[in-house]
Amino acid sequence: MSNVPVIVDIARSPMGRGKMGGVLSSLHPADLLMQVLVGLVERNNLDPGTVDDLIMGCVSQAGEQAVPVGRTAWLGAGYPVHVPCTMVERRCGSSQQAVHFAAQGIAAGAYDIVLAGGIESMSRVPMGMARIGADPHGVAFEARFPGQVGQGISAELIAARWGISREEMDEYSARSHQLAESARVAGNLAREIIPIRTADGTVVSQDETIRATTTAEGLAQLKTSFNNDELGQRFPEINWSVTAGNSSQITDGASAALVMSEATANRLGLKPLARFVAFDVIGDDPLLMLTAPIPATQRVLKKAGLSIEQIDHIEVNEAFAPVPLAWQREMKADPARLNPRGGAIALGHPLGASGTRLMSSMIHGLHETGGRYGLQTMCEAGGLANATIIERI
C-alpha cells in the first residue's frame, strides 16, 4: 500500500471582517468551520465515517473556541462520533502545521484520510483573549531575551534592518488588493471558496475584505499604528512606517484540506490536486519575530533539492508588508510569483485558518497557470515559521 500523502481537495470560506457586523460575525466559530468541512465532504462524495482524524488549527482557543472547535463542528454536521479531532496552536501557522501533521501521519502509515485546516472568528473571540496574566514569558526567558516587543514593533525593526521604505510598503499593499480583486473578477477565487450561510440565511460567497479602489497614494494618508516614544528611544533606527493599511486585516474565516494517501485516492476514484515535496519548521530571533520564513525557505528548498527559480507560485503570509518584502530581498525570487493572487493585506488573516487559506491560494493558482511547484511560508509569533513545497498533479 502506498503511503504517499496527497491533497485531494482544499477550500476556504469567504473572508469576513473580524468585527461585529462583519459578514461572518453572526456565526459561532464551530458553525463556520462546519460548513467548510461539509462542503469538502459533499463535493468529494466522501463517506465521513472513513476519516481517520480531524487536525484543526486555532490560535485563540478561548471563549467560543475553547472547546475543541473542530470536534464540535464535525458533530454539528451530524457526522459519526467515532471520528476524533485534535487542535493545533502554532500561532499564525497553526493550520499549515495541521496539514504537515496530516501528511506526516499518512506517510508514517498511521492514517489514510485526514481533514486538516483551521478556524478563527476574530469578531467573536478577539485576538489576545486567550492570554492569561501580565507576564507571558517568565523570568528565565526575560533574562535571556529582555524587553520583548509586540509584532508591530518587530515589523518596524524588520523594515529598518532591510531598508524598506513606507512608500514601498504602501505600493506593495495596494498591489495585494489589486491582485486579489483581479482574481475575484476573473472568477478564480470562486474555485476555492465554499459559500457560507449566515445566521439570517444570507449566503456569502465573496470576500468582504478586498478593497478594490485601494491605491498607494490613499494608503500614504494613514497614520502609523505603533508610534511609541519609549521604544523610539530604544530603537532609534525605527522610521515608524507600519499602518493598518500595510498590515494584514483582522478577519473571520475557516479553511480545510482533504489529505489522504495516494492509494486511497486511487481506490476512491479521486484525482489529487497536489503532492507534498518537502516540509520545514524553524525558529529564529524572538525579538525580530517575523524573520523565520527566510531560513525556513532556505531549508525547505535544500530538502527538496530545488532552487527558488524553480518555484512557480510563492505564498509568504502578509502579516505586515515588511515580512514578504524582507523575504524578497533575501531570496531574490521573481516578484511576479510572490503572492500573485493577493495576500493577507487584501484577503485578511484569520490566524488559525490562514495556513490552509494560503495553501488553497497556492494550489488553485498553480492549476490556473499550469505551474509545477509551489512554496508557502508563514511568520509566527515567537520567531517561528513553517514552510511547505508542493507539486501540482
Structure description:
The protein has 393 residues and is α+β, with helices and mostly antiparallel strands. Helices cover 34% and strands 19% of the residues. It has 13 helices and twelve strands. The strands form two sheets. Strands 1, 2, 3, 4, 5, 8, 9, 10, 11 and 12 form a ten-stranded mixed sheet that branches. Helix 3 packs across helix 13 (354-369). The two termini are 20 Å apart. The mean pLDDT is 97. It holds the Pfam family Thiolase_C. This is Acetyl-CoA acetyltransferase family protein. Belongs to the thiolase-like superfamily. Thiolase family.
Element-level helix/strand string: EEHEHEHEHHHEEHHEHEHEHHHEE
Q: What are the segments in which pLDDT stays under 50 over at least 5 consecutive residues? A: none
Radius of gyration, in angstroms, nearest whole number? 20 Å
Query: Roughly how much helix do the residues carry, as a percent range?
Result: 25-40%
Q: Strand portion, in percent?
A: 15-25%
The biggest sheet amounts to: 10 strands, mixed
Number of distinct helices: 13
Mean pLDDT: 97
What is the count of β-strands?
Answer: 12
Quick description:
InterPro entries: Thiolase (IPR002155), Thiolase-like (IPR016039), Thiolase_C (IPR020617), Thiolase_CS (IPR020613), Thiolase_N (IPR020616). The chain has 393 residues and is of the alpha+beta class.
